[in-house]
Design a protein that fits this description.
Elements (H helix, E strand, L loop, with lengths): L71 E2 H13 L3 H15 E4 L2 E4 L2 E2 L8 H18 L2 H17 L1 E2 L2 E2 L3 E2 L4 E2 L2 E3 L13 H7 L10 E3 L4 E3 L3 E3 H13 L5 H14 L5 E3 L12 H13 L3 H17 L7 H12 L4
Antiparallel strand pairs: 1-4, 2-3, 5-6, 7-8, 9-10, 10-11, 12-13
Helix pairs in contact: 1-2, 1-3, 1-10, 3-4, 6-8, 8-9, 8-10
C-alpha cells in the first residue's frame, strides 16, 4: 500500500532570511567594525552525495536505489522538497521545482494538476502528495524569497478545490482524462494544510475512536466510514496525528500503541483489525517516523526517542541498501529535524 494514494504533519521550518538593514550608511567617523556589520546568513545544505543512488541523470527520483526502472512518484518529490526546505538548500530546491514543472505538472485549461506517477501512462493526482508539495512550496517561498513558489502552490490548491470534489467532499484524486473524481476520502490524507473547504475536521471528528483501530476511509456516495480487515499502521498513526492536530485525543488507540511498544519493543507494518495481532513480520522506517510524530504530539518524548533509536538500529542493520525512497527520506526527515 504504497499510495494511500498515501503522507504528514508538516515539518517545522526556519524563518526567512533577515532583511538588509534600512538605516542610512554610517558617516566616516562612525564606521562599523567587521563584528558589528550584518553578516550573511549561512544556510545548511544537503551533502553532495546524499541519496545519489535514488536520482537519475536529470535529478528525478526513482523509488528504489540504483533502480531507474522503478517508479517516479509525486510522493517522492514532495517529501524531498520537505527535506530540502528543512535543510535550507535553495539550489537543490530550485532544481526539483523545475523538475516538478517539467514532468509532473499537467495543465488542462485553468486546471493545474500534479501527476502522481511520471514516465508512465497515468492521468490522476494524489491528494496527500499535492497538499505536501503545495505546503513545501509556500515554505520555500518564505525561506528563499521566491514568490513563484507560492503562486504555483495556489494553482495546485485552487484546482483541488475547484474540481476534486464529489458530493461536496474533497476526495482522494481526480482523473482529468475522463473528468472523474474519486468516491472516497482516505482519512490518513487529511494532514495539515488541507484546503479549508475539505470538511477534514468534520470527518475526523465523526470517526469512531472507541475501537483500537480507525476506519480507513469515508465513502462519499454512501456517506459511511469503511474498515479494512487488515490495517496498515502508517494509516492508523496518520489518522491519530490528524486528530491530534484538531485537538481530538484517541485514547483507545493510544493505550494499545503504548502497550504494544512496551511489550514488543517494536511495531509491525500491518495488524488484524479483530485480533489486533500483527499479520506481517516487517517494520518500516516511515512507520517509525509517524510513530515518533504521534508520541511527540501527545507529549511522550521518552517514547519518541525510543522509536527514533529503533529506526536507527534498522538503518545500521540494513546492508542490502534496498530501502524504498519513502522510507529512506522519512528516516532523514526524523533524524535531521533538530526540533525533535
Amino acid at each position: 500500500m504504497r499510495k494511500w494514494l498515501l503522507p504528514m504533519v508538516a515539518v517545522a521550518i526556519l524563518a526567512a532570511c533577515s532583511e538588509e538593514a534600512s538605516d542610512p550608511s554610517p558617516q566616516p567617523d562612525e564606521q562599523q567594525t567587521p563584528e558589528e556589520q550584518e553578516q550573511p546568513v549561512e544556510r545548511k545544505a544537503v551533502p553532495e552525495d546524499f541519496a545519489e543512488s535514488y536520482f537519475d541523470e536529470n535529478g528525478f527520483i526513482h523509488a528504489y536505489p540504483s533502480a531507474p526502472d522503478s517508479q517516479y512518484l509525486s510522493e517522492s518529490i514532495g517529501l524531498y522538497m520537505e527535506y530540502l526546505v528543512m535543510m535550507e538548500d535553495e539550489e537543490k530546491f530550485a532544481e526539483q521545482y523545475e523538475n516538478l514543472l517539467d514532468e509532473f505538472v499537467v495543465e488542462e485549461g485553468e486546471n493545474f494538476f500534479i501527476n502522481w506517477l511520471i514516465f508512465e501512462d497515468a492521468t490522476v493526482n494524489a491528494l496527500i502528495d499535492d497538499i505536501r508539495i503545495a505546503a513545501a512550496l509556500r515554505q520555500a517561498d518564505q525561506l528563499f524569497g521566491q514568490p513563484e513558489y507560492s503562486e504555483t502552490a495556489d494553482q495546485i490548491i485552487e484546482t483541488i478545490s475547484r474540481v476534486q470534489t464529489n458530493n461536496e467532499y474533497t476526495v482522494d484524486y481526480y482523473d482529468w482524462e475522463v473528468n472523474y473524481p474519486a468516491q472516497r476520502v482516505t482519512l490518513s490524507y487529511l494532514i495539515a494544510n488541507v484546503p479549508e473547504d475539505m470538511k477534514a475536521d468534520q470527518l475526523l471528528e465523526n470517526v469512531n475512536a472507541d475501537e483500537v483501530f480507525f476506519p480507513e476511509y469515508f465513502d462519499v456516495a454512501d456517506e459511511r466510514y469503511v474498515e479494512n480487515e487488515v490495517v496498515h499502521m502508517i494509516d492508523q498513526l496518520l489518522i491519530a496525528i490528524n486528530r491530534e492536530r484538531i485537538g481530538l485525543s484517541s485514547n483507545v488507540f493510544e493505550e494499545w500503541l503504548k502497550t504494544e511498544w512496551e511489550e514488543e519493543g517494536r511495531l509491525y507494518g500491518r495488524y488484524d483489525r479483530e485480533t489486533q495481532n500483527p499479520t506481517v513480520t516487517y517494520e518500516s522506517l516511515a512507520m517509525y517516523f509517524y510513530m515518533n510524530e504521534y508520541f511527540l504530539a501527545i507529549d511522550e518524548q521518552e517514547r519518541a526517542d525510543e522509536v527514533k533509536a529503533r529506526a536507527t538500529e534498522m538503518v545500521d542493520a540494513n546492508s542490502d541498501g534496498e530501502t524504498h525512497f519513502f522510507d529512506f527520506i522519512h528516516y532523514h526527515l526524523m533524524i535531521e529535524d533538530e526540533a525533535k
